[in-house]
């Protein structure tokens, strides 16, 4: 894509295309947070794109910018070829039916005063959809809730996992093409996480959904995603099919994330652990050149002065690094 060098889908069957997405906002006098910087990707119809990175890397900011909540500082977001950035009022509202979102905290994202039927019915009511009652019952059944017993209850009467099922039903009832899942399992127990992930996979196949799945846990991302986009401090580091990313990681930051996965495939050397430890720099004053260079064991003078662009190193495998690893053995534990 223009500016960032990220590849388009070869078959052109993308339902969502994001180009050079940039999100900046003020944080006090003369202070600007660079939350997302020229991130580009596209998502094929029926695909799940995972977006992974540490807390504060810009994942959720990118998701909200795609939803135009608020609109990005600059860049392009296209849904089925229609440009969303710049839309206002009714024109923007018309796109919301096709682009829904599931939030991180299932309990706080639901109105505690309303019953489940009213929560799920809000979308069809706003849109004047026909057979609204039937759609609500179908959506609740699809997420594993019995309409007869669940519809009249309020969120506080449910567990966190059940509340997330209600949130999914609320998004599903409008029959969207794309659902953005913003860390939808991070607040749930491990056993419940697996149930929600399996549910999303089933719904994706049943309703031909396209998912953008955001998480900080690469193990979760790998299990549900077709392709994975790795972000660090507002920038894209790597984009590859999920299996290739795990088996042949090319960016040092991807390797660091993989090494943190329990029983994962990679382990860092003691020197690498020391260099990659600590917190990321502030997004108010990101490093020059490569933003990961202050924690990267391979960083050199070029990394401080020249920002790496996304470039292909294998079919469908792109990386933004001056010194990417092309040989999988380079990442084997010593």
Structural notes for this entry:
There is one protein chain. With 334 residues, this protein is of the alpha/beta class. The chain has a single domain (14-98, 176-331), classed as P-loop containing nucleotide triphosphate hydrolases (Rossmann fold, 3-Layer(aba) Sandwich), CATH 3.40.50. It is 32% helix and 22% strand. It has 12 helices and 12 strands. Strands 6-7-8-3-9-10-12-11 form an 8-stranded mixed sheet, sandwiched between helices. Strands 2-1-4-5 form a 4-stranded antiparallel sheet, with helices on one face. Strand 7 (178-182), helix 7 and strand 8 form a beta-alpha-beta unit. Helix 3 (116-127) packs parallel to helix 6 and helix 4 (132-142) packs across helix 6 (160-172). The model is unreliable at 1-5 and 328-334 (pLDDT under 50). InterPro entries: AAA+_ATPase, ABC_transp_ATP-bind, ABC_transporter-like_ATP-bd, ABC_transporter-like_CS, Oligopep_ABC_C, P-loop_NTPase. It holds the Pfam family oligo_HPY. It comes from Actinomadura craniellae. One of its GO terms (molecular function) is ATP hydrolysis activity.
CATH fold-type name: Rossmann fold
Corresponding CATH architecture: 3-Layer(aba) Sandwich
Task: Describe the sheet with the most strands.
Answer: 8 strands, mixed
Helix content: 25-40%
Mean pLDDT: 88
What is the CA-CA span between the terminal residues? 37 Å
Oligomer: single chain
Low-pLDDT parts are 1-5, 328-334
Q: Name the CATH superfamily assignment.
A: P-loop containing nucleotide triphosphate hydrolases
CATH class identity: Alpha Beta
């Amino acid at each position: 894509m223009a500016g960032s060098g990220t590849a388009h889908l070869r078959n052109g069957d993308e339902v969502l295309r994001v180009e050079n997405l940039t999100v900046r906002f003020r944080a006090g006098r003369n202070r600007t947070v660079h939350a997302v910087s020229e991130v580009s990707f596209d998502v094929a119809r029926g695909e799940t794109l995972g977006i992974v990175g540490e807390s504060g890397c810009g994942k959720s900011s990118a998701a909200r910018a795609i939803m135009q909540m608020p609109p990005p500082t600059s860049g392009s977001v296209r849904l089925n070829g229609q440009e969303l950035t710049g839309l206002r009022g009714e024109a923007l509202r018309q796109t919301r039916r096709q682009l829904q979102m599931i939030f991180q905290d299932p309990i706080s994202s639901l109105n505690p005063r309303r019953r489940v039927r009213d929560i799920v019915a809000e979308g069809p009511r706003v849109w004047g959809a026909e057979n609204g009652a039937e759609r609500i019952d179908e959506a609740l059944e699809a997420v594993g809730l019995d309409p007869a017993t669940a519809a009249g209850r309020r969120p506080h009467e449910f567990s966190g996992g059940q509340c997330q099922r209600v949130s999914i039903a609320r998004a599903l009832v409008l029959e969207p093409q794309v659902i953005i899942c913003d860390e939808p399992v991070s607040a749930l127990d491990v056993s419940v996480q697996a149930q929600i992930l399996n549910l999303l996979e089933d719904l994706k196949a049943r309703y031909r959904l396209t998912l953008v799945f955001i998480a900080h846990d690469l193990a979760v991302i790998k299990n549900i995603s077709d392709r994975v986009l790795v972000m660090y401090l507002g920038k894209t580091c790597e984009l590859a099919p999920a299996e290739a990313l795990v088996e042949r990681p090319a960016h040092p930051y991807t390797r660091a994330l993989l090494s943190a996965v329990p029983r994962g495939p990679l382990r860092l050397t003691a020197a690498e652990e020391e260099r990659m430890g600590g917190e990321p720099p502030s997004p108010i004053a990101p490093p020059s050149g490569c933003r990961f260079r202050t924690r990267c064991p391979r960083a050199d003078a070029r990394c401080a002065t020249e920002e790496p662009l996304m470039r292909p190193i294998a079919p469908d495998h792109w990386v933004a690094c001056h010194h990417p690893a092309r040989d999988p053995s380079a990442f084997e534990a010593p």
